[in-house]
Amino acid sequence: MSKMINEIFNFDSTADDCVKCGKCIPVCTIHQVNPDEVTSPRGFLDLLGAYKRGNLELDKNAKDIFESCFLCTNCVDVCPKSIPTDMVIEQVRSDIADKFGIAWYKRAFFLLLRHRWLNDIAFKLGWSFQTCGFKIKADINSMTSRFNLPMLKTNRLLPSLAKTSFLNAHKENIDNGGTRRVAIFIGCLANYNFKEIGDSLLEILEVLEIDAFLAKSQKCCSAPAYFTGDFDTVDSNAKFNIAYFESFSRDVEAILVPEATCSAMLKMDYEHYFHDQPDWRARAKVIMDKVHMATEWLHNHTELESILRTKEQDTKVVTYHDPCHARKVQGVHTEPRNLVRQNYKIVEMSDPNVCCGFGGVTMQSEKYHFAEAAGIPKAAMIKKTGADIVSAECSACRMQINNSMHGAGVRTVFKNPIELIAEALKK
Ligand code: SF4
Ligand code: SF4
User: Fold this and answer.
1) Of 97, 118, 349, 373, which sits with the fewest C-beta atoms within 10 Å of its C-beta?
2) Ligand 1 centroid to residue 323 C-alpha, Å
3) Residue 36 sits in a domain of what CATH number?
4) Ligand 1 pocket, Cβ-based, cut-off 6 angstroms
């Protein structure tokens, strides 16, 4: 990214940088499922420039177009001018939210994300009653609706809820008798749905004799709100998390996040969001240097790889999916593979870097037909490998890929690499 952050959000100047080479078109996730010039990176940029110059009204049609981007960053990866199309679309979504408001169910969801105590109550109630409305598939921590509702069809697989959240199931300080100490930022899906990820991370830290601080007051990183244009929630949660991280950062070596989207939000998007609040931007930059994806830190800063080498080989075959927020945004892709391949055979799918098609809250609700279509090629790639397990360090990818595989009748099981590593350490 050659431009300063403030300049990037001048939509007309960023749009003018586009040389219309079209290199981004073949890799654009929305263009693949909706092949129209307006839903392509250069189409989005053209419209943003016109909007900034006052030649385009932000009407329902424009809203519909700007909300169809998956924010996958595929375009940024191949663009010769490194134009951050995803960042400018995230920004215009705030204008869209200001003009049209945010749907009631999204506001209710974001309200939960602002208050952990409220979230804890809602998820506890959800766990108590989930069997009334859903059929549970315990082996993959998922469920399907018993009834057809407007956005909840019976053939759609969703993550089920854990009885007790990860943060409520453990002590805040875990003494593994070591001289090193790390904090854990767990993320909402791993806290309430895929609790085994955090449990596995604690098991790994115990073997490594690294003490853990669970940072129980952490709030949602606010990525779902950021991608939807609810900047009030981002402002509130980001400021809280920055101040909270500052309060314990001197006592820990690193803040580990076993989730690509949360890690990218904390490490990169807080800085983007605070582009017009310099004090907070500077604080975000300093504190977020301590944030690392869990596999990246464990691989680069501990003896984990050599310990795994002493363990048995597992007969299960693994294929690895690269979450957009891990490989393209944070450059993390060799580290999880290097750790996993010590005990499992890895068979690469034809393109592990292709977006799974999750796309955020709007894509998973109003525009679910796009998410569904974008998930089909990924499920087919996984099936072709014949792997027993598909792995990725991202629970949003897990939710989307599990649903895509369910729709395509693919029996491969999804596991976070942290779970695979913890299982290998037990052998
Ligand atoms: S972020 Fe992804 S979906 Fe959006 S324009 Fe870029 S490639 Fe297309
Ligand atoms: S790759 Fe970059 S410069 Fe080329 S058309 Fe796409 S956004 Fe424009």
Assistant:
1) 118
2) 14
3) 1.10.1060.10
4) 28-30, 41, 44, 69-75, 85-86
